[in-house]
Amino acid sequence: MSAEGRFVPSGWPGLKAVVRRELGAYFTTPLAWVFLAAFAFAAPAFAFNVGRFFDTNRADLAPLFAYLPWLLMILMPALAMRAWAEERELGTIETLLSLPMPLWAASLGKFLAAWSVAGLALAATFPMWIAVNWLGAPDNAAIAVGYLGALLLAGAHLAIGQALSAVTPNQVVAFVMGVLVAFLLTMAGLPFVTGALSSSVPAWMVEAVAHMSALDRYAAFENGVARLPDLVYFLSLIAGGVTAAGLIAGSTREGGR
């Protein structure tokens, strides 16, 4: 019960403390600033140069959203790699987990801090949204849904990356594993992958692999459609990654490292 007499869920103060701690760690070092600068440069570069933004003669952000999954596949594991690996490397994980808060608060706090940085990175592309409104009359609702999909995809990669970061004290190893898993999730539903699998595995297994594709789920948001199954898919990946990160890191309490 708070001082105002309102009910405060168990772990909420610890969650807020971890979010503040992690955001401080990001922004008091060059990490967040370098990440934001890299994203702010790379996202428009893909859209303008690779996606040929001006050659489409369309007032929308389709070139940006088309290349965001490939950018997020690399940058999100880079943002997630320090979450738990750095704690293990510095020997501070035992101190963090000995604080009077549940495991979920520590794990969710780390995720929310990193997801906030990812959200700021996506916000850095908003000038492009303003530009297309100046150039024409885009479907702003569809663009908003596209940004929602990008934020959910970023969250899924972050949650999985943080779970992998809890496995090792080496941030480079955590990054490589995160990129590999993000790559597999992205590529799973592509035709050449399912075509290659269809010749050697049962059809139900090919269909199962195709349904695992984050790129296929993201495509609906990219087209301005927010479907419930796709929302559930991304939120399940996020919940699973955050839970796994907490459980793996929590093994330290029993002597694991």
From TrEMBL:
It comes from Hyphobacterium vulgare. It is a multi-pass membrane protein. Residues 64-204 form the ABC-2 type transporter transmembrane domain. The chain crosses the membrane at residues 23-47, 67-85, 111-135, 141-160, 172-193, 231-250. It is found in: Cell membrane. Keywords: Cell membrane, Membrane, Transmembrane, Transmembrane helix. This is ABC transporter permease. It comes from the Bacteria.
